[in-house]
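Title: Comparing notes on inverse folding

I've been comparing how different people in this forum approach sequence design from structure. To keep things fair, I'm posting one structure and asking everyone to reply with a full sequence. Here's the target:
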């Protein structure tokens, strides 16, 4: 009886500890899986223990260019592109993350393969910027922004960069081209 009670408690602890594992694909304001807004470049191997990290070094540390870091899963599929706050500094934190893999999602379902409807239905849009080939939709709630190709817009909105585009003018089925999270 004493052993079965101890075994039951051990089993309960095991199940509750497994339930607390963070989702490796959850995107939130301060985290993307195991990566958070204070993770340093030198600690990326801890945040992605089963993935490959490719750091591009330009060879000229005096240019001041940011060197992007790509993260691939074990099958070779690209997951994320990380831009550190300082180039060639292992203590630098990550400033911008481009989310490539569609498995990375916010709790409300926003992912790299989402449409504008997901944004419109679930988030407050902070701003919409009109550029030459894309529009940039900012979502301050989650420190994110997405780009949508102007080819997804009605013809009368595609060519005038000075035109102020409103959320109501963007079709629900407009596909997201790029999904970024930015930490300041």
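Reply #1:
Here's my take.
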């Amino acid at each position: 009886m004493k052993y079965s009670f101890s075994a039951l408690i051990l089993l309960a602890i095991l199940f509750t500890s497994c339930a607390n594992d963070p989702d490796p694909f959850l995107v939130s304001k301060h985290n993307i899986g195991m990566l958070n807004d204070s993770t340093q470049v030198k600690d990326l191997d801890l945040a992605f223990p089963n993935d490959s990290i490719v750091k591009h070094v330009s060879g000229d540390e005096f240019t001041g260019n940011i060197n992007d870091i790509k993260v691939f899963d074990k099958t070779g599929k690209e997951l994320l592109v990380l831009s550190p706050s300082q180039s060639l500094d292992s203590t630098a934190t990550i400033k911008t993350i481009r989310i490539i893999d569609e498995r990375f999602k916010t709790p409300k379902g926003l992912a790299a393969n989402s449409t504008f409807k997901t944004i419109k239905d679930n988030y407050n849009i902070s701003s919409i910027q009109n550029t030459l080939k894309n529009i940039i939709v900012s979502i301050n709630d989650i420190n994110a922004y997405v780009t949508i190709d102007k080819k997804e817009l009605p013809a009368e909105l595609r060519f005038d960069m000075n035109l102020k585009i409103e959320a109501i003018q963007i079709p629900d089925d407009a596909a997201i081209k790029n999904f970024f999270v930015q930490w300041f």
